[in-house]
Structures are given as structure tokens and as C-alpha cells.
Fold:
Amino acid sequence: MTTNNEDIKKGLAGVVADTTAISKVNPDTNSLLYRGYPVQELAAKCSFEEVALLLWNGDLPDQDELTEFRDFESTHRELSPELKAVIDALPTDCHPMDVCRTAVSVLGAQDPESEDDSPEANLLKSKKLFAAMPAVVAYDQRRRRGDALIAPREDLDYCDNFLYMTFGDVPAPEVKTAFQVSMVLYAEHSFNCSTFTARTIASSLADMHSAITGAIGALKGPLHGGANEAVMNTFDEIGIRKDESEKEAEHRAKEWMDQALAEKKKVMGFGHRVYKHGDSRVPTMQSALFDMIKYFGREEMLGLYNGLAKSMDEAKGIKPNLDYPAGPTYHLMGFDTQTFTPLFVAARMTGWTAHVMEQLADNSLIRPLSAYNGPDERHVK
Ligand code: COA
Structure:
């Protein structure tokens, strides 16, 4: 069989690879629905635990289902001594995404249900992974700063406990709200690179933890999840000057962007494969960022943020994606820049695991074709 080059869909752009009932991205109406609900509504009205149950089960939980899940989640947060020892053995200058990837692999090896691919076992594994990730992410940031592990607190919900385990204090309600909004917005986004990776691995009937480990690898790249970290590196390159006015910061940001575009640089946090007129999640995340800028009194960050976005829009009409407001929000909360993508891992754990279960419910091995463009047949002399 021969394939014309024009038949090749490089990067699978525009290819519809399967159906999904988990989320619907509509770039024309700039909307994103999780199981039919607009993501903005979920971010405003629901906890991250409710959104997780929605993605896995197809419907929002009632009070009893939510209480049962919260009881489960709050008692499955602790790092086992073996997992803590593995994390401790990793260099403190490796990327935190390497720690997440390794931790999920270890959790798979430790899970007695690891090889059980029944829907019940996979839902249980999904809930355990959801509950375990915050301790991995929080402890990894702490150990890099020379700080000790903080044990989880069962009386706190997911987001309060996540921030408590990272920083040692229960967060102010304003900070918790902005964090929860980011978790909900990052939870799911149809067949993106990491989710498709998870589905591809699951399609070979490999186990849930293998699929999630692969997804974490895919998310690490700056063209995907690594962009929230890269956005902060841009802010750092321009220089964050706490005593600067909003106007001065905006001016410097514009100058930086003009120069970057003149040098034909790809500026992280802008553009999207699917959304060409703006990312549906940005207005909600941006308003959470603006709340944090006000809460922490850091107007110079607003100048940098607006300066870059305005210049990019004027020069190329390219809009920010979710990573653009999420990066500086996490910075203001006190997360290290390299921890941003692991926060995305904790959030996307919900979508990834939901997709693995959906793939397995109606599986077909994912195996596309390739058009050979190497040498013609030849023989060893
Ligand atoms: N900075 C500067 N130019 C950009 C850009 C960016 N962030 N994103 C897209 N463009 C430009 C490209 O240079 C290209 O211009 P050209 O036609 O003159 O060559 C055009 O817009 C199309 O870009 P392309 O990379 O082909 O689009 P895509 O759909 O393949 O890429 C991304 C989508 C996300 C990979 C791309 O926008 C990007 O690399 N963004 C930065 C990384 C990022 O923020 N990723 C997180 C995504 S949620």
C-alpha cells in the first residue's frame, strides 16, 4: 500500500481517533464541558473531589457518595515508608516530574490490584492515585528546600490538605479557592497528548499505573504541561521587580515580547492546537490569578502578565492558554517553578484515569500506520 504525503496527518492534527463521553471541547463556541457541565460552572460551584467523581462516574455525586469518597481519600494520602525511601534516593536536582513518574511506577508495583483490569479494580486504583499524588508533590518540593515531610491531616479536604502538606499552614480561603479552581480547570481536556498516551498504553491491555506513568512522561514536555513552568521562566527572564509599578512592568514585558517575536521565538503559554480564538479555561483562571495578585499585593505581576498578552495579541493575534495564568498563580502561592507541572499531574490524574477506564470499556488496540520514506530495498553484500 502506498500513501500520498498529503494523506498524512502530521501530529494527528484534525484526526478524530475515537468517541469520548468524558469531555467536549468546542473551539467554535469556546466551551469545554465535563460530562455535559460547563467547566466554568464546575470551577465556581464544585469541589475538586466532586469533579473527580463526575469524571469517573458520569454524574455529580450526592452527599452520601461525596462523604464516602472523602473518607476514602483522606485515609489514603500517606506516603508508604518504601515510597518515601525511593523519593529520598532521587537527586534533589532531578526534575520533579521525574519524581512523579517514578512515584506512580512504585505505587503500581506496590498495588495488590495492579494486574486486575476489572472496572471495579481500576476505579479503586484511580481513587488511590488521586489520594496519593499530593503527598508526592508536596514532599518533593519540601525535600528540595531541606524541609521534612509533613503528615497529611484527615480533617482537611483535598485542597486544604495539599497546601498544608506543602507549606505547613492551612491556607487562607482565598488561596484555597484559587488553587481549587486551577485543579478543576486542569482536570480534563479530551484527547490531548498525555491523555492519548495513557489511552494508547491502556489499549495494549497494560495496567493502569503503566498508562499513567507514560502520561506523566508526555505531560512533562514544554509543548504540553511543561508550559506552565516555562511561562514562569519567561517572567523570571524579564525580571520580577516587586517595587515596580504595574505600568513599568507592562512596558518591559512588551519590549521583551517584541524582541522574542522578532527572533521568531515560540513563547510558552500562548497558542493551542485546538483553540485558535482563545482557550475556554483562561477567563476563569485569569480571574483567580487577579484575585491572588490583589490578595498578595503584587501589581507588578499584573503588568508583566498584561504586557506579554497584549503584545502577543497585537503582533500575532495568538491568545494565552491555561498555562499562562496558572503559572504566575502557583508562583504567588509559593510553589517552586518546577513544581507547577506536578500540580497539573495531580489535577489531570482524574481525567487520565477516567480515559483509561473508558478506553478499556470498548477497547481497540491503538496502532496507526506510517508511510515509509527510507531507502528502497537493498541487500547486505
Ligand atoms: N509563540 C509564538 N508563535 C506561536 C506560538 C507561540 N506560543 N504558538 C503558535 N505560534 C505560531 C507558530 O510559529 C506558527 O506561525 P507560522 O505559521 O508563521 O509558522 C503558527 O502560530 C501556528 O503554530 P503551530 O505551532 O503550527 O500550531 P500548533 O497547533 O501545532 O501548536 C502549540 C500548538 C500549543 C504546540 C503551540 O501554540 C505552542 O508551541 N505553544 C507554546 C507552548 C504551550 O504554551 N503549550 C501549552 C499548550 S496548552
The two ends are 28 Å apart (CA to CA). The pocket of coenzyme A is lined by residues 223-224, 227, 266-273, 316, 318, 321, 323 (CB under 6 Å).
